[in-house]
């Protein structure tokens, strides 16, 4: 085994790991006063990891990717594109975090440190080509996430969110491990390349249970129905910057990890896992749309919106084709921008004392008090609803197109119908902001960091985003091709 080459191929994870160790020392020596410095350095570390990843992506020498550590890890275009989305989401979340904790004086240097280590785990997840690597990356990301969810120690809701996330996460990990043990028992290996031929032909009952248990464990991580029950409570109770992080970077990592294991390890048994994915997709679309209708808390509504969007993304995966995988990546990129922009807009909803405003009734008439925030939030809502000419429409279009091309017309039709239902609660927010009598609650000021991230995401989801359609589609096609090249 060539360790030098392996370390080179795992450059983003190595760089972030070393950066995390440095941040640990800074946190230990500097205490709470080093929180902002740690945040700046963490953003720098994620920028550095993004540059390393992009260098692999544009280097012709790595067109076919490469395996590291004896096939435990694979550097390819699919993993690189997923990592870029993860790192960019992490950067955006860290930029808007410090302002949230100013009032409570609870911001500590451990926060950016946890985000960095979570990013290391997520990078391993999307590049894992072995069940052991997958689980190590998953747990590294999850353990950091449990602490982040309960980061605000003075808030009972945050402590409750962290506890719920931990208990249900432990249950999901147990289900995933049991599925892995069955897959290993019936294939004789934990490597995706060895599992694929071992599962060729008729799949036995034990192996089928292994596949189902693995997918059930992964469904928790992507908050797909019926393993979505933690999402609304954790999204509402966790600090809003943490919720912003949960809705973007870990979502990309979990979906990319699910795509790799289904299309690589279980690629010869598409008929077995496709039924599970189709059920999870349709159930997530319907439950997410219906569950959001009666919500009065914006964060809970966005939690159900996240479940709803996961369903649309899974429609692309259910096709089992390169076009479906490409559409899934395009939707993921657009979804990250929409979700990040939505939560940043929520972060900017503050009363005169600087307290966070989360109740939908409090944003009544926001268009008159804060017209730019209302405009950007409305753009995010309409884009999430898939209403043209906003860019969110294109994400849904390519996913449904891939489903139709794969002869899954019924699946696409149900998805389109459910997206109409989902448009109701998005339009409800727009109606409250523009047509209700002003509540005059949101009067607080915001800093440049929030406005910068909100502006970038708003421009991306605007009609100007269509200028990126061709290059983003080509990049997604290349990533999907790399995923299907490993056979």
UniProtKB/TrEMBL annotation:
GO CC, one annotated term: endomembrane system
TM region positions: 6-28, 40-62, 82-101, 113-138, 165-186, 198-220, 272-294, 301-323, 329-350, 371-394, 406-427, 448-468
EC number(s) stated in the UniProt entry for this protein: 7.1.1.-
Membrane topology qualifier: Multi-pass membrane protein
Subcellular localization(s) per the UniProt record: Cell membrane; Endomembrane system; Membrane
Lineage top rank: taxon: Bacteria
Family, per entry: Belongs to the complex I subunit 2 family.
Complex and partners: NDH-1 is composed of 14 different subunits. Subunits NuoA, H, J, K, L, M, N constitute the membrane sector of the complex.
Name the UniProt record assigns to this protein: NADH-quinone oxidoreductase subunit N
Organism: Allopontixanthobacter sediminis
Gene assigned in the entry: nuoN
């Amino acid at each position: 085994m060539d360790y030098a080459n392996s370390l080179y191929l795992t450059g983003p994870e190595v760089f972030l790991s070393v950066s995390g160790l440095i941040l640990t020392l800074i946190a230990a020596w500097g205490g709470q006063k080093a929180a902002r410095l740690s945040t700046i350095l963490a953003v720098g570390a994620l920028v550095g990891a993004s540059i390393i990843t992009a260098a692999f992506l544009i280097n012709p020498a790595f067109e076919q990717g490469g395996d590291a550590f004896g096939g435990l890890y694979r550097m390819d275009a699919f993993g690189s594109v997923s990592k870029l989305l993860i790192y960019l989401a992490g950067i955006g979340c860290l930029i808007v975090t410090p302002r949230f904790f100013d009032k409570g004086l609870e911001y500590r240097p451990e926060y950016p440190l946890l985000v960095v280590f979570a990013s290391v785990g997520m990078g391993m997840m999307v590049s894992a080509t072995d069940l052991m690597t997958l689980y190590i990356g998953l747990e590294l990301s999850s353990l950091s996430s449990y602490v982040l969810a309960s980061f605000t120690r003075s808030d009972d809701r945050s402590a409750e969110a962290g506890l719920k996330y931990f208990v249900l996460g432990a249950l999901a990990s147990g289900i995933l491990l049991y599925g892995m043990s069955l897959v290993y028992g019936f294939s004789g290996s934990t490597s995706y390349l060895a599992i694929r031929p071992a599962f060729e032909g008729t799949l036995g009952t034990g192996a089928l249970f292994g596949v189902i248990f693995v997918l059930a464990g992964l469904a928790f991580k992507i908050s797909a129905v019926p393993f979505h029950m933690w999402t609304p409570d954790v999204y509402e109770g966790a600090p809003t910057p943490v919720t912003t992080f949960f809705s973007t970077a870990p979502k990309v990592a979990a979906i990319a990890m699910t795509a790799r294991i289904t299309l690589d390890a279980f690629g010869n048994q598409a008929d077995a896992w496709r039924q599970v994915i189709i059920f999870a997709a349709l159930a997530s679309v319907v439950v997410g749309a219906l569950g959001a209708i009666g919500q009065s808390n914006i964060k809970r509504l966005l939690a159900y919106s996240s479940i709803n969007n996961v369903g649309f993304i899974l429609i692309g995966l259910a096709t089992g084709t390169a076009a479906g995988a490409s559409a899934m990546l395009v939707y993921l990129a657009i979804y990250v921008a929409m979700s990040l922009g939505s939560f940043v807009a929520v972060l900017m909803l503050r009363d005169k004392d600087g307290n966070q405003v989360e109740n939908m009734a409090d944003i009544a008439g926001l268009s008159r008090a804060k017209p730019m925030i209302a405009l950007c939030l409305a753009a995010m809502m309409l884009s999430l609803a898939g209403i043209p000419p906003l860019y969110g429409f294109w994400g849904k279009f390519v996913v449904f197109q891939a489903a139709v091309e794969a002869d899954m017309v019924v699946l696409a039709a149900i998805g389109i119908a459910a997206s109409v239902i989902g448009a109701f609660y998005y339009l409800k927010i727009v109606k409250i902001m523009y047509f209700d009598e002003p509540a005059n609650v949101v009067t607080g000021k915001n800093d440049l960091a929030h406005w910068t991230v909100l502006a970038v995401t708003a421009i991306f989801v605007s009609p100007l985003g269509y200028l990126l359609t061709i290059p983003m589609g080509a990049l997604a096609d290349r990533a999907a091709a790399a995923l299907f090249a490993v056979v």
